[in-house]
Amino acid sequence: MNILDTIIARKQVEVAEAKALVSVAKLEAMPLFAQPTLSLQQFLLDESKTGIIAEYKRKSPSKGIINDRSLVTDVTKGYSDLGASAISVLTDADFFGGSLSHLQAASQVVSVPLLRKEFVIDEYQILEAKAYGASVILLIAACLSPQRVQQLAGFANRLGLEVLLEIHNHDELAHICDEISCVGVNNRNLKTFEVDIQTSLQLVTAILAHQKIPIAESGISNTDTIVTLRNAGFKGFLIGENFMKQADPTIAFAEFVADLKSKYA
Question: Annotated active-site positions, please?
Answer without folding.
Answer: 55, 57, 117, 166, 186, 217-218
